Fold SDR family oxidoreductase.
Amino acid sequence: MSSPTTPRTALVTGASSGIGAAVAAALVERGHRVYGTSRSPEGISDPIPGVEYLALDLTDAASVEACATAAGEVDILVNNAGESQNGPIEELPMDAIERVFRLNVFGAVRLTQLVLPGMRARGYGRVVMVGSMLASFPLAYRSSYVATKAAIKGFADAARREVSPFGVGVTTVEPGSINTGISERRTQYVGEGSPFEEEYRTMVNALNANEARGISAEAVAATVLRAIEARSPRPLYAVGSNAPLVFALRRLLPRSVMLRIVARKHGLR
């Protein structure tokens, strides 16, 4: 990793635990002023020294704008907060799908819109979308989550060229399986007696086992810092789940074959 950069002001969403907390702590160590967000900052049991916490509900447009105003001139934005959601597509309630898109996509995009003008005016900025390798390797029964992560990567990929002439780098970090306790926080929608229930449970059990063996939040944070500190950030950084190998296979094998490989890794035949 490169030497510490000029101290900047960073805003990290979802900084009360997991990847967000690890990124916030790493940025503080690098000498940056760090704002971390939480729905309820007053309820954070183990606050990170040096992090200033702001309230943020990404599903509430007024909350997003208030957070951006409170943070002021942000040089580094890490869009990390999100919801992990499972369920057969037939059984996902539309209000749940709309909520996960507001939280994982629309809130992140709006926050990005609010900080970009200042970055552009100052001639420097870094925006990191924390996605998921599932956006590159979709998995059955995770359609809504996969779609949100693919959407934020699409926004990042398209926006890169718009803002790069102004010194602003936009990138996506895609973690694979992460051991952060997310298995306990995932929202799930599958009806009792569902025709998909048996296969769904097989997938969930494999998913949870993969996550229990997954990389740490700190490993993902190190990759986020690489993206932030790169002179010219790449469009995509992937970490965990044998990322170099599986992305190489993705370039070599037909997409249908890769989808079967991902399914089998999760117990689906």
Observations:
- The CA atoms of residues 88 and 216 lie 28 Å apart.
- The domain at 9-265 is CATH 3.40.50.720 (Rossmann fold).
- The mean pLDDT is 96.
- Strands lie at 9-12, 33-38, 51-55, 76-79, 85-86, 125-130, 168-175, 187-188, 236-239.
